[in-house]
Amino acid sequence: MLSRTGRGFATAVFGPAARLLVRLGVSPDVVTVGGTLATSVAALTLLPGGHLAVGALVLGALVVTDNLDGQMARLTDRVSRWGAFLDSTMDRVADAAIFSGVLLWALDHLDGTLRTWTAAFALACLVLGSVVPYAKARAEGLGMTANVGLAERADRLVVVLVATLLVGLGLPAAVMTAALGLLALASAVTVVQRMRTVYVQARTGSPADPAEHRA
Question: From the candidates 91, 111, 155, 209, which is the catalytic residue?
Answer without folding.
Answer: 91
